[in-house]
Amino acid sequence: MVTVSDESKEIARANLNAGYQLSTGLHLPVVGYGTWAMSEGPECAKAVCAAIRAGYRLIDGAAFYQNERSVGRGIRQALTQGVSRSELCVTSKVWVDNLGYQSTMDSFFKTLNDLELDYLDLYLIHWPASPNKHECWQELNLATWRAMVELYEEGYVRAIGVSNFLPHHLEPLLAYRVPPMVNQIEVHPGYSQRELVALCQAHGMVVEGWSPFGRGAVLSDATINAIADAHECTAAQVCLAFARQLKVIPLPKSAASNRMVSNLDFLDITLSDEEMQRLVQLDELKLGYSHEHPDQ
Fold first, then answer.
1. Residues 228-257: pLDDT tens digits?
2. What's phi and psi for 186, nearest 5 deg?
3. Fewer CB atoms inside 10 A, N or C side of the chain?
């Protein structure tokens, strides 16, 4: 039987040790592995298994990605190769079309069935109901959150949170008896959302950053590549180090095992204050911004 190498186990330990502890006791690794845009099928399962073998321990998925059967298959393959389920942080999300108490419950248990797991580590509201798209949007978000809290309190999920929530979406949930523990938002050089990151962190939320490479658009930027040259690293590693120094968990995605491993090498990179400032200034260009806004 093929097992996970000692080197990969050491990388996984470093990934976990550099991460973030939630009030629930769940420890989130410093970097995760994204599964967006992976088609259902054996290649998806193979990539997820390879990511876990490389040292990733946070697997970020969603019902909307329509690949959870394959993601679950990849996780189970890794569990036969010397990785413990307790090491993993498996994430999914309820899609915006399924907001509301009962729809959220139904969506959660479908996800659990598709993944063939007994529990999730983290469950998120993928996109909020918004004032421009939904009548009684605040009530819809609260009804969804009530289902999330019940799933958490009944032990089906170890932590709960949101994704793509802005301050006005967050405000009613922050007053709930169990407030969000995580907010997953777009974060990368060129779109750092530092004010929203600071607000979430001030309320005890861990921030995860999707599209850490700005969908690839930032990897050719001259500023990023100059910093990469100075550190003798890749542009991708600079982007991941940037997120880490903002105390944001980046969620890179790659199906290539060599890039999976290379991306994890960012743990040894420390950017100077001057380099961070140069990267933050790219926000003026909205470099790599997806133009996906929850209220538009």
1. 999 999 999 999 999 999 999 999 998 888
2. -70, 125
3. N
Report how far apart, in Å, the C-alpha atoms of 248 and of each of 20, 51, 91, 224, 237 are. Answer: 10, 20, 16, 18, 14
Number of continuous H segments (helices) and E segments (strands) in the chain: 11, 10
**In this structure, which amino acid lies at residue 76?**
R
Confidence (pTM): 0.97
User: In whole angstroms, what is the distance from residue 30 CA to residue 3 CA?
Assistant: 23
What is residue 175's predicted lDDT score, i.e. its pLDDT? 95
65 is catalytic: yes
Q: How many whole angstroms separate alpha carbon 181 and alpha carbon 162?
A: 8
Asked if 169 and 128 count as a contact pair (C-beta separation under 8 A), the reply is: yes
Half-sphere exposure of residue 118, counting CA atoms within 13 Å on the CB side?
4
Catalytic-role residue among 65, 123, 191, 289: 65
